[in-house]
Write a structure and sequence with these properties.
By secondary structure, the chain is α/β, with parallel strands linked by helices. Helix 8 runs antiparallel to helix 9 and helix 13 crosses helix 14. The longest helix is centred in the C-terminal third of the chain and has 69 residues, at about 675-745.
Length: about 900
C-alpha cells in the first residue's frame, strides 16, 4: 500500500503480542507475520483516519487472504477462546461453579455442531439464570471485547429459529439458545403402501423435529404420537396429522399447530382439500372458495399473515363454526377431538356379558354400568384388561372396589366410577391494583331527577410526584391435570394484566409498579391507561390570543372555545364551545351550550344544550335542555331527561332517555340503540392506521434492501481496489529490487525505464488508495442511512404495537359491555320517528306519549324465533 499523502497517520504495530484474533490466525497458519502486520496497520489506519472499525478477520477477508467461511471460523474460534477466559472470570468474581461453566461451554459446542451458530456462553448463563445481563456486560467490558470479536451469522445457515407461537412450554425467547432436536424413533411401517399416508408421515417427522427443537414437546411425546398415528391408520384406515394428535393430548395449542403447519408450507394443499370437501358437502359454491382465496391473498399481501380459508369463510358468514369443524374432521383424516360435547357411551363385552362403558365429556371420569348378574368367572383382572384395551390407564379403581361392583346386587343398573382423572388446576388472571380513587364523582354526572350538577366535582384525588399509583399482580398459570386415558389436561388459559403508562407517569424497571412522574390529578382512561393530569387554566376564551391548545392534562376555560380553534387535552371544562374541534381522552364538561362543534371523547360529554354538533364518545352524552340537528355515536347512553331530542341521528349502545323525541314540524329523528357503531368505527380506524403503518414499514424495508445490495457492491469494489493496491505494491517491490541490482552492476541504461514503470505503479496504488477512501466514505453514509431507516422501523413497530393494544382494548369493550336496545320517553315520541336495534326496527305511525320501546324476541306464525321493536306505553 502506498504511503503517499499519509505522513500524518501514525500506525503503531503491536509490541506486546497480537490480539487474540490475530494470534489465532498466525498460529493456525492462515497468514504469515508480514501479512498480519500489514492487516494490523490497515486496521489502525482505518480507525484513525475514517473512525471505521474492522476486525483482523474482516481485513484478511477483504484482502483475499482468507475465505468468507474461514473468516467466520476465525471469529468463532476467537469467541470460543475468549469465552473460556470469560468462564474463569465468572467463576472467580461471580461464584459460578466450574461445572456450570463447563456445561455452558459444552452447550455452546453442541449448538454450533447442530446449527453452525455460535451462542456466547454469557447468553447461555443468563438463560440458565446463573448470571444477570449486567454481570455479563461487566465481564465483557473487563475482557475489552468488542463487536468485531463476535462471530456473526453462519454462512449458508438457516435463519435463527423462532417460536411458532408465544405460548411455548418454557416461555423461551427467540434469543435463547435452542437445544438440538434429538432424532425420533420411527415405528415400523412395513406393509403399508398408501402414498398419501407416506407423504403425511414424512412431513410429520419434520413437524416432530420442529416441536422438539422449540421445546413445545418432548421426544417421548412425539414418539408416542407417531406410534398412535400409525395405530389409528392400521386399525381404522384414518390419516390424522401428528400435530392434531398432539393438540388432542394437550401438548400443543391449536395456534402452535397452525403456525408450524404454515411454516412447513403445508396449508396450500390443506386449503385446496378443504375447499373440495366443503363443495362436496354442499356447504359452499366454487365462487365462495374463489372469493376466500382472493381474500387470503389480500390478507397475506397486507399483513404478511396467511389465514386458513376455513377461518375466512366463517368470518364472511359463508359457513358456520359447526360446518368448519365437520370439514376439518374429515380433512384431518377423520380424527376429531376425542372429548366432544357429550359423554361417550360404548357397549362392551367381557366373557359375553354386556356392560356400558361411559366416559365423561371432559375425559376425567369413566363409569361401568351392568344390567345383568355377573358370573363368578369375571374378575377384577378381566375388567382391568378391558380398560387397558380401551386405553383407560389412569386413576383406575382398586380391585376390592371392582370386586364389590361385580358381586354386590346394589350396583345393578347403576353407574360405577371405574376410573377418575386429575382435574387441571386453575390459574389466576393478572390484575392491576390501583392506589387512587378511580371512581370519584365526575363533573356533569346526572342524578335520578335528570339534573346535571356542573359545579360539584366531588373530592378530586391529587398526588405528589413519585406517588405509587398502581401495582400489577402477575398472572399465575394453572397446573396440568390428567384424564383417564393418561393424557394431559390443559388448565384454562389465563390473561396477564398490563400497566399502561400515560402522560405524567413512569413504570418501574420490572414493569410491576407505576408511579406519578409529576404532581397532579391521577386518572384512569379508557383501556386502562393511567395518567397524571396537571391543570391548565385559561382565564378568558380559547381564540386568537391563545391559539390552538394541545395539553396532556386538564384544561379549564373560564370563557368559550371560539370558532375555528382546536383543543386536544386530557379533559376539557368550558363555558361554551362554538364551531371548534375538541379531542379529549376523558370528559368534556360544558356549563353552557355546544354549537356547531366536532367532539371526540373517551369519557362523558355533558352540556346545557347540544346543537348542530357531531359527537363520538365512549361515555354517556348528557344534555339538560335539548339535542338538536346533531349526529351522535356513543358507546354509552344518551340522556336528555328534562328536554328534547329534535332532528338528530343518534346511535347509542346503552339506550336513549328523553322527555320528548321530535316535534310536529321538525324532520324525524333516526335513533339506533343496542348497537356500538362508535366502537366498531373506532376499531376500523385502528385497523386502517395499522394497515397504513404496515405499508409504510414495507416501503422502508424495500429501501433497506436496496441499501443492503448497494453495500454488497461497495464491499466488492473495496476488495477489488485493495487487491489492485496490493498487486501494485508487490510489483513496486520487484521493480525496486531490479533497479537496485542494475545500479549495483553499474547498468544505468535500464534504470530509467524501470523508474517509469515504478512511478506508474505508484500512481496506480495511490489512485486505488483514493478510491478506497471514497468508497469508505460512501459506505459510512450508507451506514448512516441504514441506521436512520432502522430507527424509523423501530418507531413504526412501537406505534403499531400501541395501536394493536388499543384495538384489542376496544374489541374487548365492545364484546363485554352489555348493549341496551331501549328508548324511553316520558313525554311524546312524534310520528315518523325511526327506531332500530341490532335485529329489528320500527317507524312510528303516529305520536305516542309515555313510550318505552325495546327490542324483544318473539315467535312467528311457524313458531320460529323472530325479533321486533315493541312499543309499550307506560302508565303515568
Amino acid at each position: 500500500m502506498s504511503d503517499k499523502g499519509n505522513s500524518s497517520i501514525k500506525v503503531h504495530l503491536p509490541k506486546t503480542g497480537y490480539p487474540p484474533m490475530g494470534k489465532l490466525a498466525l498460529d493456525k497458519g492462515l497468514v504469515n507475520e508480514k501479512q498480519l502486520n500489514e492487516a494490523w496497520a490497515l486496521q489502525q489506519r482505518l480507525l484513525q483516519e475514517h473512525n471505521k472499525k474492522l476486525s483482523i478477520a474482516d481485513i484478511l477477508f477483504k484482502k483475499k487472504l482468507i475465505s468468507e467461511d474461514t473468516m467466520r471460523r476465525l471469529k468463532i474460534a476467537t469467541a470460543r477462546l475468549l469465552d473460556k477466559e470469560f468462564g474463569i472470570i465468572a467463576a472467580r468474581e461471580y461464584s459460578v461453579s466450574e461445572s456450570d461453566i463447563n456445561s455452558a461451554l459444552e452447550k455452546q459446542a453442541k449448538i454450533y455442531q447442530k446449527s453452525q451458530e455460535c451462542v456466547l456462553i454469557g447468553d447461555i448463563l443468563i438463560y440458565r439464570k446463573q448470571l444477570t445481563r449486567e454481570d455479563v456486560n461487566a465481564i465483557l467490558s473487563e475482557q475489552n471485547r468488542s463487536e468485531d470479536m463476535l462471530p456473526g451469522k453462519p454462512i449458508n445457515a438457516p435463519p435463527p429459529k423462532t417460536d411458532a407461537h408465544p405460548g411455548s412450554k418454557e416461555g423461551r425467547s427467540t434469543a435463547d439458545p435452542q437445544p438440538a432436536a434429538p432424532a425420533m424413533s420411527e415405528p415400523s411401517i412395513e406393509g403399508i403402501k398408501d402414498k398419501r399416508f407416506f407423504q403425511i408421515r414424512e412431513l410429520d417427522k419434520e413437524f416432530g423435529k420442529i416441536v422438539i427443537s422449540k421445546n413445545l414437546a418432548t421426544k417421548e411425546e412425539v414418539d408416542t404420537a407417531l406410534q398412535e398415528q400409525l395405530s389409528v391408520y392400521k386399525e381404522d384406515d384414518l390419516k390424522p396429522f401428528l400435530g392434531k394428535i398432539l393438540v388432542n393430548k394437550g401438548v400443543l395449542t391449536n395456534e402452535q399447530f397452525t403456525a408450524i403447519m404454515l411454516g412447513q408450507q403445508r396449508y396450500d394443499v390443506f386449503d385446496k382439500k378443504f375447499g373440495d370437501i366443503a363443495i362436496e358437502k354442499g356447504f359452499v359454491r366454487k365462487n365462495d372458495i374463489k372469493k376466500a382465496l382472493e381474500e387470503q391473498k389480500h390478507i397475506l399481501i397486507k399483513t404478511g399473515e396467511k389465514k386458513l380459508i376455513g377461518d375466512i369463510l366463517v368470518s364472511l358468514s359463508v359457513i358456520s363454526e359447526g360446518q368448519l369443524k365437520e370439514i376439518m374432521a374429515e380433512q384431518t383424516g377423520g380424527y376429531p377431538d376425542e372429548t366432544g360435547n357429550e359423554d361417550t357411551i360404548r357397549r362392551v363385552k367381557v366373557h359375553d356379558v354386556d356392560f356400558e362403558l361411559i366416559v365423561s365429556k371432559d375425559g376425567l371420569s369413566a363409569f361401568l354400568k351392568r344390567d345383568d348378574e355377573i358370573p363368578d368367572a369375571i374378575s377384577p383382572t378381566d375388567i382391568k384388561n378391558l380398560l387397558k384395551e380401551k386405553k383407560i390407564a389412569y386413576g383406575v379403581a382398586d380391585d376390592s372396589l371392582i370386586e364389590g361392583f361385580l358381586k354386590h346386587p346394589a350396583h345393578k343398573g347403576k353407574k360405577f366410577k371405574i376410573a377418575e382423572g386429575k382435574p387441571a388446576k386453575k390459574g389466576r388472571n393478572g390484575k392491576v391494583n390501583y392506589h387512587f380513587d378511580t371512581e370519584f364523582l365526575k363533573a356533569g354526572s346526572v342524578d335520578q331527577d335528570g339534573n346535571i350538577d356542573y359545579k360539584d366535582r366531588g373530592e378530586i384525588p391529587h398526588v405528589p410526584a413519585g406517588e405509587l399509583l398502581a401495582e400489577k399482580i402477575s398472572a399465575i398459570h394453572g397446573e396440568k391435570g390428567i384424564d383417564v386415558f393418561g393424557r394431559p389436561v390443559a388448565p384454562p388459559a389465563v390473561k396477564d394484566a398490563k400497566l399502561k403508562c400515560g402522560p405524567g407517569t413512569r413504570v418501574s424497571d420490572d414493569n410491576l409498579k407505576l408511579f406519578a412522574k409529576i404532581e397532579g390529578q391521577p386518572s384512569l382512561a379508557f383501556g386502562g391507561k393511567i395518567s397524571v393530569m396537571s391543570n391548565l387554566v385559561i382565564k378568558g376564551d380559547i381564540g386568537l390570543k391563545t391559539g390552538h391548545i394541545d395539553f396532556d392534562g386538564n384544561v379549564k376555560v373560564m370563557g368559550a372555545v371560539q370558532s375555528g380553534f382546536k383543543v386536544k387535552a386530557g379533559s376539557l371544562d368550558a363555558k361554551e364551545i362554538h364551531e371548534a374541534e375538541v379531542i379529549a381522552s376523558e370528559d368534556v364538561t360544558v356549563s353552557g351550550g355546544i354549537n356547531g362543534a366536532t367532539i371526540t371523547a373517551g369519557g362523558i360529554i355533558s352540556a346545557k344544550y347540544i346543537a348542530k354538533t357531531t359527537i363520538s364518545s365512549f361515555g354517556d352524552v348528557a344534555a339538560q335542555k335539548e339535542i338538536i340537528d346533531s349526529i351522535i355515536e356513543t358507546s354509552g347512553s344518551v340522556l336528555v331527561r328534562k328536554g328534547k331530542i329534535i332532528s338528530s341521528e343518534i346511535a347509542s349502545k346503552k339506550g336513549i332517555e328523553s322527555m320528548d323525541i321530535g316535534t310536529d314540524k321538525s324532520s324525524p329523528c333516526k335513533l339506533k340503540v343496542g348497537v356500538d357503531t362508535h366502537g366498531q368505527r373506532e376499531i376500523q380506524k385502528k385497523v386502517m392506521a395499522i394497515g397504513a403503518i404496515e405499508k409504510e414499514r414495507m416501503g422502508i424495508m424495500e429501501q433497506l434492501e436496496v441499501l443492503e445490495k448497494e453495500e454488497e457492491t461497495l464491499n466488492q469494489e473495496i476488495a477489488e481496489q485493495a487487491q489492485i493496491q496490493d498487486r501494485s505494491m508487490v510489483e513496486q517491490r520487484g521493480l525496486k529490487k531490479q533497479m537496485e541490482a542494475l545500479s549495483g552492476e553499474g547498468k544505468k541504461e535500464g534504470i530509467a525505464g524501470l523508474a517509469e514503470q515504478y512511478k506508474a505503479l505508484e500512481k496506480k496504488a495511490s489512485d486505488a488508495d483514493a478510491c478506497i477512501s471514497d468508497l469508505f466514505s460512501r459506505q459510512d453514509k450508507l451506514s448512516d442511512s441504514k441506521a436512520a431507516f432502522l430507527k424509523e422501523v423501530k418507531q413504526l413497530d412501537e406505534r403499531m404495537t400501541e395501536l394493536k393494544d388499543e384495538k384489542e382494548d376496544i374489541q374487548k369493550w365492545v364484546a363485554e359491555d352489555t348493549p341496551v336496545p331501549v328508548v324511553k320517553a316520558r313525554g311524546a315520541v312524534y310520528e315518523r320517528s325511526y327506531i332500530s336495534g341490532p335485529k329489528a326496527s320500527v317507524t312510528l305511525d303516529k305520536t305516542y306519549k309515555h313510550l318505552h320501546i325495546k327490542e324483544l324476541r318473539t315467535k312467528d306464525a311457524a313458531g320460529s324465533d323472530t325479533w321486533e321493536m315493541k312499543a309499550i306505553i307506560q302508565k303515568g
